[in-house]
Amino acid sequence: MRRGLRHILRTVITTVLLGLLPVGPASAADDECRVSELTSARVTASVRFKHEGEDYSKAEGLLTVKVPKSWSRAPDLLLNGDTERYRTAMRCLLRFPDDPFPYRDTEGRTAAPEVTVEEKWVTVDQRVLTWVTGLQTRHFGPWSLTVGDRLWRLELMPPSALGRAWWRKVTVDLGGRPARQVSSPPTTGGPTELTWVQRKASGKPPEIDVTLQPPAAKASAARWSEHPWYVLDALGWLPLHGALLVLVLLTARAVRRESVSAPSAGAVPRTTRNLLIVAGLAFAITVVQLFDDTLLGHFARQGTAPFWTDEHRISVHMGLALLTGLGLCGFGRPGRAALAAVVAATGSGLAVACRPEWFALPSGLWLDWVNAPDDVLRFRDGGGLVAFTASCTCVVFVWLVGVTAVLLRLWRAAGSTAPGRTPGRFPHAWLAASAVLSVALCAVSLWSAQNVWEHQSWLSRRNASEDYGLWHMATLFADLRWFPSDWLDWFHGTYFWWWAPSLAILAVLRARDTAAVPVTALPSAAELRTLKAFFVVCVAPVVGWYAGVPLPLLSLLALWLVLSGLLALGTRRAVLNRELPRTGHRLHEVARGADRQRLLNAARRHRELHAQLRRLEQGQQEEDRFRLEGELDRLHRLPHPSPPPGLPNTWIRLPPSIGPVELALAWGPRATAWGNGCRAAYFAAVFAVPGVVLLVWADHVRGIRWADKFVQRFGLVDTVTAAVALELLWVGAGFTLGVLWRVLPGRRGPVRAAGLAFVYASPVLVQLAGSRLVGQPLGTWPLELSLVLLVLTLTGLAMDIDTFRGERRYWPTRTGLLLSVYQWRTASVQMAFLVGQLVALVTIWQQLKGNDPMILIERSPSESTGGSGN
């Protein structure tokens, strides 16, 4: 009896004591993570800030956890990353196990945590990083960074399962900036590097709370993406496009004032009118692209027109994207079949935007899986994701048809002589290709959104409950819903805003070349203005971002001044612009295009006579030196442009340092400036291919950058379009070199190319100087500038060789012909070529070797505007 009473009393007491113990989430975490087995774990952590040499301040964290092999979860750390047991084990060591759905969009990882096995321990090394691109709180690894206007607060937030582990050493490197406040004094270190060391296990991690003040430039860059500054960011880029529009308008006016009278002159006003329309259309789309996100985001925060700016914001983006695409189709006139397809695609896209409930989409195109799970279920089961992806496909299709039609109309107008509509039709094969490409782009975008989800929710419980599927679907759609706005930002904001005006300017130049009667030796004043506009719009790099503040007009002004200065120098120092002694005439007025063959023959005879003189000096042959010099003297004379009466055979000597060879080289390989431009564009296209491959590798493929393409909406296709854009840019540079060939200073092709390369580099040099002041990285600009110089130099050499292409069959190699044309000695040329190659190799190697990105390239921060709503 007593034994029974004791048993009952013991049971009651045990039950009461267990009831008094906490049974909240901590108990569940202890049970899952076996926290009692982690008391012997050893932890070291570090964080390092980097301010200089970055667009934004960067923080890199390293967490090293050594757990004993006796820990029940230790074997799970060696499993595949897709297994639930692996995610559970990692969640215990790296996050808070109580949260079944951990999601971090502020933490970047270059690789999965590294796991190594030792005799008694299993070590986990996790490397994380974050860029401070805004004022929100950023969580990365065990750290929390709260970003303020001027002061930032860094806190250590250890995972709960490691709360009783031995935190042996914690290091905080502030990147050369002393702390403004430190909560607990460090054990060792200095003003900019603080270290907390625990000599023995204390069962409690150190309390670290550090306040730092970043450089003013980096604080400005972080603050500029917040409200309301992101509106000013768009306003900062708008003057650049406004200046380009004014430049195109002035160019069109100059072309109209300089009339051309020829049977084919009808193409000139038509191409000029197209240029005006395309420039205005591109500017209007640019305004939409710059302000669709920023203004809607600003109005939403202000509570202005919430029906449009908040409740139906995505529908507005969809409508703007379709409207701008229809504007392109309206100008391009793609034809009946293409127009019917565009109308059908537009109707489908507008139906999804205006009546989303018809397609299992929520009102306002927003899913709330917490408060409205039924909407998510209906969206998932009714194929809402497929319907919205199809509407995005319609947007891309309308745009691709419009872009193709615009480019076709612009170029066909230059070759059409009949008034009225430009002949030609929209090829059905291109229509089918546009449809296929649209589907592929949207499918890849959906796939990249899934990759982003995998990257940011990699530690979530996949089979915990039905909530995971709802959360996954809602988050995936929340990413994809911004596709219409992102499409404008990427395709038009990066490429099309300069593709269409550039082709329109080329069409004007082509039409003027066709209509030019008689053919002029040098470009006219209107053509020079048009070429300057082409170089600014098509070729010149767009730079001017300093610490979050866009100032592109500074670089544009530098470019315009240097380009104008180069052409002004050419009016005095170009070979064909040199004045003849005592006459006041210029060389291009005397040596006309009709005399070109005679000039080539004279140049060839001049080189032969010089070769004979050199052999005569070396004693290799016997010749009458006075006869050779007399013939050379005659080759240095031209017929008098306006001989005195009674002296029809008066001759005049060429200017000093100008001989028959220089005169022939100055004309270039073709009879017209347009022909020279096309020839130089061809050479530049060939020589640019290795450079394009190298730059695409450096900017898009090198290191982790290739892996980044799989988490970017247009990452993969952007690699292709960037290669195409680089090729077009360098082809445009070669074309400009060829058209300006006769008015650029210099007697040899490489000298002419060097002047144009300096013009290209002028805005970049302004950017590099500003980057030095605010501590921004130089990127691959030094590599690109060296490649541009190399491509243009090779193009100049090829143009000089092509000028004497009639002699090519007499020389075994082009190098031999070039040596003869330049009259260089073989040894000196080989030495100069070797030195030049060594300098180029050293420059490129230094650009690619010593930088961290060659070893470890981290993901760049997202630069979406603050009004994007992401």
TrEMBL record:
The keyword Lipid biosynthesis does not apply. Pfam families: DUF6185 (PF19683). Residues 1-28 form the signal peptide. The keyword Transmembrane applies. Keywords: Membrane, Signal, Transmembrane, Transmembrane helix. Coiled coil: none annotated. The chain crosses the membrane at residues 229-252, 273-291, 314-331, 338-358, 385-408, 429-449, 490-509, 530-547, 553-570, 680-700, 720-741, 753-775, 781-801. It comes from the Bacteria. InterPro entries: DUF6185 (IPR046176). This is Integral membrane protein.
